[in-house]
Design a protein that fits this description.
Blueprint: E1 3-5, E2 8-10, H1 13-43, H2 50-58, H3 63-87, H4 96-122, H5 126-154, E3 160-161, E4 164-165
Antiparallel strand pairs: 1-2, 3-4
Helix pairs in contact: 1-3, 1-5, 2-3, 3-5, 4-5
């Protein structure tokens, strides 16, 4: 159960650790995802920053804005992932293999949940966006799952509920 100090809520160390690894894993996974994405565009003869420029232009800015938004989304995904594996016992990461597996599933889920709305927002062909997104999203998810799993297992994380460990 969270502690209160001077009427401020303090999260248990285990949950703070999980959130930290989730955020860091989301950023590391997104950085690797960005590299795969850039290499994919280069391989098909498109500008390396095509994705980031398209997002940035839609936001009224350039490629740097697109990169920033993409990394913010990846960080947020890492945060959500860490909270899910912290609060739900069936999702508890008790091995690196399970961490990678859950991360892979998370990456796969981001394809229909993120890419389809994204394609519609950009007025791009959905299948084309999905084709360019599958490998990068699976890289993100697998990296996130490994990173969070490694961190949680290394530090003896216990899943949390509203009243304490599940």
């Amino acid at each position: 159960m969270p502690n209160k100090v001077d009427e401020e809520m303090i999260l248990p160390a285990s949950l703070r650790r999980a959130v930290g690894f989730g955020i860091a894993g989301g950023l590391v996974g997104t950085a690797l995802m960005d590299i795969v994405l850039v290499l994919t565009f280069i391989m098909v003869g498109a500008p390396a920053d095509a994705f980031f420029s398209t997002v940035g232009e839609r936001l009224g800015d350039g490629a740097l804005a697109g990169l920033a938004v993409h990394n913010l989304v990846g960080l947020t995904g890492g945060l959500v992932f860490s909270l899910l594996v912290s609060f739900f016992k069936p999702l508890r990461i008790d091995s690196w293999r399970k961490g990678v597996g859950l991360g892979f599933i998370a990456g796969a889920l981001t394809i229909p949940l993120g890419c389809i709305p994204f394609a519609l927002w950009l007025n791009q062909p959905v299948l084309e966006v999905i084709a360019f997104s599958v490998l990068p999203h699976l890289v993100w998810g697998t990296t996130l799952g490994w990173f969070v799993g490694y961190g949680l297992i290394s530090y003896g994380h216990k899943p949390m509920s509203a009243t304490g460990p599940l």
